[in-house]
Amino acid sequence: MIPARSLAGREVGVFGLARSGLSSIAALKAAGARVHAWDENEDARAQAGQLGAQLAPFTSWPWQRIRTLVLSPGIPLTHPEPHPVVIAARNAGAEIIGDVEVFAREIRPDRSKSGGAPVIAVTGTNGKSTTTALIGHILSTCGFHAGIGGNIGKPVLELVPPNGRTIYVLEISSYQIDLAPGLVPDVSVLTNITPDHLDRHGSLANYAAVKARLLEQTARDGHIVIGVDDPLSSSICTRLAASHGARTIPVSVGKILGRGIFAVDGGLYDAWSNGAAKIMGLAQAVHLPGAHNWQNAALAFAAVRPFVKDARAIASAIAGFPGLAHRMEDAGRIGKVRFINDSKATNADAAARALACYPDIFWIAGGRAKQGGIASLLDHAPRIRKAYLIGEAAEEFGRVLENRVPFEICHSLERAVMTAYADAARGSVPAPIVLLSPACASFDQFRDFEERGDRFRILVADLAGTGERQAS
């Protein structure tokens, strides 16, 4: 744990007691702060109380003494309208920050300079979790202590304090960027920008501006790595290359760059310094299938180059990457049927990346729909043998797929897995894939995408056990 010494001895409000909120309380108490906390969830309040927080609704907090509110990233800061606790904090003149900002103040007290433990910060719409995990894997393989956290894995304040070989690798969501104005990455990475979370940012332009803000905060002697295959990211790259002191490195898949990092025809190339040199064949990275993962590999390569000079060592680490849970994860095989857990695909663009990887798919989709729906996925209709629709979006998705893709409204994940397996097992397709790639948020039926993916794994394991018992 990293104690929040910058807030030692102060009275601090913490609102929203999920993982980041509880870790904030622990870090604040470790530094001697007095913490006022609240969440509507009774179990979360109980945990906060055990950590030493004073529990009361925010309306009864002593706002005349509270100068800092540590807000959960899940609480609306601006759109669709500020949460009442945000208004209360503003009226009291209190700063509103998140746990990432608390972390940033501890790791680099002088925010005008680089130094201390380096920070690699990864943001974007899709691919940021895989890219973050891959960067951490490369660094660990090459002898560094990689502290991986943020929007993936551990909350940042639960990471181990730095030693001489520590590099922090943080996945940063748009919500967290809004609450971390003092985070100064040594390397910032933007994977891509497609429409997402527009209800929380008001417009695609606002969403893109938040993503760009993280890059703008990069240390002047640092590096900015940007996937340039979508128009918004490309525009951000052009602007920052002309105006920011940090070195800006473009990354592309399918396009040869005169200067940058790119993946073409299954090869990863470094064209940043002395012409284009092939680094590796990406087929070696068996747990990074598909063009979208080529982008992740190229971004990760660019991000670690300031720290790892041996390109062959980076290539070897990429080839040995074991994959990321809930993202194109192999969840098992029963007979000829293979199960893929892509629960982290919470929007259509992410689901499209999975659908592009397999020729014969029995697709489980649905949940709480994102703006834009799944009409864009109809391009993949020839690959989809049948769709199994769950959650709040089931009927809406059925209307989109009608006359294009056979589908069945299953409502629950349990029924979808059983039905998809039965259809795949008895069909004529030689290598069917049962793919959970929901293109939706999970919050209608599950706590988060991780719980949804874990449940999928359990259902597959149960099916496998049933099959073994029947065979015996």
Features:
472 residues; alpha/beta; Rossmann fold; UDP-N-acetylmuramoyl-L-alanine:D-glutamate ligase; Protein-Tyrosine Phosphatase, Chain A; 9-stranded mixed beta sheet; 6-stranded mixed beta sheet; 35% helix
How many separate structural domains?
3
Estimate percent helicity.
Answer: 25-40%
CATH architecture descriptor of the largest domain: 3-Layer(aba) Sandwich
Poorly predicted parts: 468-472
What is the percentage of strand-forming residues? Answer: 15-25%
Structure description:
- With 472 residues, this protein is an alpha/beta fold.
- Helices cover 35% and strands 22% of the residues.
- It folds into three domains: 93 residues, NAD(P)-binding Rossmann-like Domain (Rossmann fold, 3-Layer(aba) Sandwich), CATH 3.40.50; 217 residues, 3-Layer(aba) Sandwich (UDP-N-acetylmuramoyl-L-alanine:D-glutamate ligase), CATH 3.40.1190.10; 143 residues, Alpha-Beta Complex (Protein-Tyrosine Phosphatase, Chain A), CATH 3.90.190.
- It has a nine-stranded mixed beta sheet, sandwiched between helices. It has a six-stranded mixed beta sheet with strand order 15-16-21-17-19-20, sandwiched between helices.
- The longest helix has 23 residues.
- The radius of gyration is 23 Å and the shape is globular.
- The chain starts with 10 loop residues before the first strand and ends with a helix.
